[in-house]
Design goal:
By secondary structure, the chain is an alpha+beta fold. It has one domain. It is built from 1 helix and 4 strands. A hairpin with a 5-residue loop joins strand 1 and strand 2.
Length: 93
């Protein structure tokens, strides 16, 4: 890896004030969309879920939206069936 680790100093004022230095660390993770193993320099925090390829994040968000819409369609159909007592025709048949 050719990147240089950076560090930044932050002032914490809660309670007794002090200064804290955060250093980047090498983090290796697997992208949840494309499955690529990526190594990056990151400040402390949770591991990322997506690689640097911008399409991975957008694709995952689109799939989440599609799944949510499908769940909502099923929920509405079930509520309509419950309210009317009439079976609702499935679009997948």
């Amino acid at each position: 890896m050719t990147q240089e680790a950076e560090q930044k100093t932050i002032s914490v004022t809660r309670g007794r004030p002090y200064t804290r230095t955060l250093r980047q660390r090498v983090v290796t993770f697997t992208c949840v969309v494309c499955g690529d193993v990526t190594t990056e320099l990151r400040y402390p925090g949770p591991l990322p879920h997506y690689c640097d390829y911008p399409g991975c994040r957008r694709l995952d968000e689109r799939l989440d939206n599609e799944h949510a819409a499908e769940r909502m369609r099923r929920l509405r159909a079930a509520r309509k069936k419950e309210a009317t007592g009439v079976p609702v025709r499935s679009e997948n048949v």
